Amino acid sequence: MQRSILLALLLTLTGCLSSQPRNVTNVCDMFEDRRSWYEAAMRTEQRWNVPVSVSMAFIYKESAFESRARPPRTRLLWVIPWVRPSDAFGYPQALDSTWDDYRESTGNFIARRANFADAVDFIGWYNANSYRRNNIALHDARNLYLAYHEGNTGFDRRTYEGKQWLLDAAARVQNNADRYKAQLAQCRAHLEMSWFGRLLD
User: Fold this and answer.
1) Residue pair 178/140 in contact by the 8 Å Cβ criterion
2) Which CATH architecture has domain 2-200?
3) Residues 125, 52, 33, 27, CA torsion sign
């Protein structure tokens, strides 16, 4: 009986940890609920020099912070669910091939796209490559997102030109990054406090 109760509690906790945050438009609320996310995003910032606000804006755009997100299936004869347009998966919506490149490059062979810490590190790694290959500033969320979507070779060839839907999406990523940056400025000091300091705050 006790084992059954413990198992049920464990499954409930696991489900809560992988569920979407309540308020994805406020980075302070997300980090207050999930302190481990803040720590992972900060590690990414320290390792790859990509601002926390940029990484979080990417994840918001790609998956809305749903750990097992996939592209919606296409429809056969407008009704029957059919194949998905790509193998993108997880928080970063990374393709299988790009994820394999990341794991090989970083040596993190057990990394999973449904794990937030791995996903945010992947975004930092990819954007650091965009800076190195195309000299895109690491706070320039708009152009970083265009390179993320089109690939760095595609960005160099300006394949995003004429794709108004993509240009609009990249502008939204920049707007979200700016909003997250402003929010984070208001709560970073609190997030940096120890658990005891937060009790007294």
Assistant:
1) no
2) Orthogonal Bundle (1.10)
3) negative
